[in-house]
Amino acid sequence: MSKTIKLSLGLVLAALNLNAYATPESKVVISDTFTAAATKHGFKPELVNRLCQPLPDIVSITCHHSGGDSPFESLIVQYRYNTRTTNNDMYKHIELDDIRIDLKNRQINFWSGHQITTPDGIGVNRIQGTSNSYIETGGMRGFVSRTDRHFQQQRDTEYVLTHTSEFVYKHQDQKGAINAIKHYQKMVSDNDYVVAYKEDQVIEPVEIMQGASFTFPISEPLRQRLIDVIEQSKK
Question: Residue 6 has what pLDDT?
Fold first, then answer.
């Protein structure tokens, strides 16, 4: 009996210790009409509910519906990863990464937003590669319909670069689309980065997207959600 009690206490202490280091739970925001709209579009209630549940490594989940039944109706599930910040004497770089499921238009957008803030007297230029990207699966390239990049100076010392790779599964064979997500390893993009400069002197690269380093992690629970969405999407 005493051995059993000691073992139980040990398990309790281990569980408490693990909990102390657990990843903070995702912040979840759900619009009032999201569940009804997603069900109307053919998704089973249990999947709709699961899409909006917290996930490892995801800082926030937004399940958003707007526009009613109009042509501008939006039905999006957004998974946002932790913000990453890089500080340098010549710039501050903040990065936000999202995986956004467009349930109505049947596509998954891999979106990355970058804000570069500089001190006075420091400028920023963009050096752009080609506009290609693809899903690396370890043996094949998953199809990406469109790659969209925007770079602009918002204020005197603030610049923004955004990148979206659209995986439109409604245009694909369902099995092939599922395989691309099932074997997903990373989203690969051609080189695309910005440089900070001062009076045409030292150039400091702010590396944004460098080929295979442009990666969106997908946990197994998230991978299964993406697969289930493709399987339940109406053709």
Answer: 36
